[in-house]
């Protein structure tokens, strides 16, 4: 939505000869993206579907707090948050994300990573230090997050549940209740039901036959 809005604004400004400053287009993009997330859906991965997994080398971690984020791992609730250094609303979300990380950091079933697709490592590291980002931060070096966790705008967060499926997607400012709900769910367990005809069943059947035979002989 942000890109379409910027394109439409550019056409209108040229058609009616209305000069716009260069900074106007990023601002229009951000506003349109936020409105899209709050009122028109986030454009993210479909809730209930299997979450795309991330290999160890898909992300370049500039700061790792706790385990490396592994969405799709059974028993883990993983928050994948997309952001950028040039995104004003993303800056405003950092204290909120710091608070969430501080609240759940001691839980073994919780993981949070903020991912940017920017390639200037020095710029990102300086930004992290300036804004005191306390959670894991990584660069999307293989574009696996941008392709597997798309969004209409940023900041955007995806919660992957303990069953490995997408639990929620939207603006990170509104994820608190959903995150608590995802963490409260019971971890899935593998079935312990024995298949029919296994060795225990056969032994039990044989024992039953022997017992019957002994009773008849008596």
Describe the structure.
- This protein has about 220 residues and is an alpha/beta fold.
- The protein has two domains: about 1-40, no CATH class; about 45-185, Glutaredoxin, CATH 3.40.30.
- About 40% of the residues lie in helices and about 15% in strands.
- The chain contains seven helices and six strands; from the N terminus they run H-H-E-E-H-E-H-E-H-E-E-H-H.
- It has helices at about 1-15, 25-40, 90-105, 120-130, 145-150, 175-185, 200-215, and strands at about 60-65, 75-80, 110-115, 135-140, 155-160, 165-170.
- A six-stranded mixed sheet has the order 1-4-3-2-5-6, covered by helices on one side.
- Strand 2, helix 3 and strand 3 (about 110-115) form a beta-alpha-beta unit.
- Helix 1 (about 1-15) packs across helix 2.
- The longest helix is centred in the C-terminal third of the chain and has 19 residues, at about 200-215.
- The termini are far apart.
- The model is unreliable at about 1-10, about 35-40 and about 190-218 (pLDDT under 50).
Can you describe this structure in just a few lines?
By secondary structure, this protein is an alpha/beta fold.
């Amino acid at each position: 939505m942000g890109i379409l809005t910027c394109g439409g604004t550019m056409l209108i400004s040229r058609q009616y000869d209305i000069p716009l400053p260069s900074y106007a287009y990023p601002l229009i993009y951000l506003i349109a993206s936020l409105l899209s997330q709050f009122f028109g859906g986030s454009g993210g991965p479909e809730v209930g579907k299997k979450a795309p997994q991330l290999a160890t080398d898909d992300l370049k971690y500039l700061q790792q707090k706790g385990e490396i984020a592994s969405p799709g791992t059974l028993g883990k609730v993983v928050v994948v948050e997309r952001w950028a250094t040039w995104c004003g609303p993303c800056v405003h979300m950092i204290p909120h994300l710091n608070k969430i990380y501080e609240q759940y950091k001691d839980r073994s079933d919780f993981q949070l990573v903020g991912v940017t697709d920017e390639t200037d490592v020095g710029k990102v590291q300086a930004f992290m230090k300036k804004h005191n980002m306390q959670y894991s931060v990584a660069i999307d070096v293989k574009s696996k997050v941008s392709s597997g966790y798309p969004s209409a705008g940023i900041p955007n967060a995806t919660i992957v549940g303990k069953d490995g499926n997408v639990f929620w997607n939207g603006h990170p400012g509104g994820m608190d209740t959903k995150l608590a709900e995802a963490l409260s769910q019971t971890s899935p367990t593998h079935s312990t039901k024995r298949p029919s005809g296994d060795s225990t069943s056969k032994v039990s059947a044989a024992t039953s036959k022997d017992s019957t035979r002994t009773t008849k002989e008596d």
